[in-house]
Amino acid sequence: MPRQPLELVPFRGLRYADPDVGRFIDGKFDLSRLLAPPYDIPDVREARELQRSDPHNAARVTLPFALSRQTPGGAVPRHYRAAADLLHTWITEGVLALDERPALYVYEQVTADGRRQRGLVGNLRLPEEGTEAAVRPHEDVADPPVRDRFDLMGLTRANLEPIFLVYRGGGGTASAATEAVEENPLVCTRTRDGAEHRLWALTDPGELRRISEDLRHRSALIADGHHRYAAYRRLYAEYDDPGWRYGLALLVDSDTHPPHLGAIHRVLPALDTDRAIVEARTVATVDPLPAASPEPFVHALEETEAPALVLVSASGEAYLVHDFEEDVLAQAMPDHSPAWRHLPTAALHEVLMPLWGTPEETVRMVHDTPAEALTAAREERGTAVIVPPLRVEQVYAVAERGELTPRKSTSFGPKPRTGLVMRVLD
């Protein structure tokens, strides 16, 4: 099967353009009140707070379900249509405008703790039928979020936020061009989380050609945005429109800017921890841990061979679950490699949760911070499961074997902010 080149194509970005909807700081147009996290980060309450924070906040079009009392899976078409109408009203009124020239955009983020990341934003060409894709997923998807993004993008005829890709660039031409720009950014702003965001446009034809030549022989990994990528592919398959041949993407050289991989912890509402521990001991070793703070939990996971997890009760008792029986892992996951069976989320979802009778749809996901998972477990009188983060090398290895990690096994960051640059087909 022929391999399709990795192509990131220049486009005319749609950006906030009306100074009256933002504010000026030190003589520069500031967008901080208009930007939003990726659509799948805020819960309903947080989404509504974003939408109330400014009448032109990007979340008003990326999260239409939050304008009603329905959840994403239950949103009806009129909410997507309302988002589409609002987006095109903003364009008509000049709140948003297309840049004059096609460009690849250099996007830099510097987090509050000093982590710096740069990448290129452009139109990612999707794979043609009968070709090997240059972009590999590493995580499985569920249909409701794919349908949600498919409906929203289909009605707005827009990619409202980029997916996040990483590639092994080795400091090549594309990476060097990304690092070289410094002067006169199009955007320079600081969001409420303390992160700085800067955006530049690369429009020189010669430079764009050299970047294209460097990328075409490489491959990329989806770091964040699996559901949006699946929606991109569904749009391309179902609509007879050449515009859907592409989808908006941020491409980051992981050799130059190693991404941060945070953990995604679980909260299992109403699961009795004492019973869970008794049943876990039938398939693994369970040791009690000091319950002073989350830090010892993280240290214990770092010192223990995978798969390992920490269970914490609503009252704070903590237990390290490790040394799973190999025949149990093999029986539960016969079609996967030994390395996949030793992923912590695989042991949790394929061995422990069936043992406990916990349905997948009842599990609450908590990004990055163990303390938040412990608080949620107390509130819901359930059990928190503290999960160790994967390493970038592990994720590349899983993808290269053609396997997919269990859903929500990784949280790559920093994630691109929504609203800096968008793409419309019309």
Structure characterization notes:
- The structure is a single chain.
- The protein has 426 residues and is an alpha+beta fold.
- It has 2 domains: 8-259 and 413-424, no CATH class; 264-388, no CATH class.
- Helices cover 32% and strands 23% of the residues.
- It is built from 14 helices and 23 strands.
- Strands 1, 6, 7, 8, 10, 11, 12, 13 and 14 form a 9-stranded mixed β-sheet that branches. The chain has a 6-stranded antiparallel β-sheet with strand order 17-19-18-21-16-20, with helices on both faces.
- Helix 3 runs parallel beside helix 4 and helix 5 packs across helix 6 (205-215).
- The longest helix is centred in the first third of the chain and has 16 residues, at 77-92.
- It is globular.
- Residues 69-76 have low confidence and may be disordered.
Short key terms for the protein model shown above:
six-stranded antiparallel β-sheet, alpha+beta, 14 helices, globular, 426 residues, nine-stranded mixed β-sheet, 32% helix, single chain, 2 domains
Query: Termini, distance in Å?
Result: 34 Å
Oligomer: single chain
Overall shape: globular
* SS content category: alpha+beta
Poorly predicted regions are 69-76
Number of helices: 14
Biggest sheet architecture: 9 strands, mixed
Helix content: 25-40%
Number of structural domains: 2
Rg, alpha carbons = 22 Å
| Strand runs, count | 23
Percent of residues in beta strands? 15-25%
**Average pLDDT, all residues:** 90
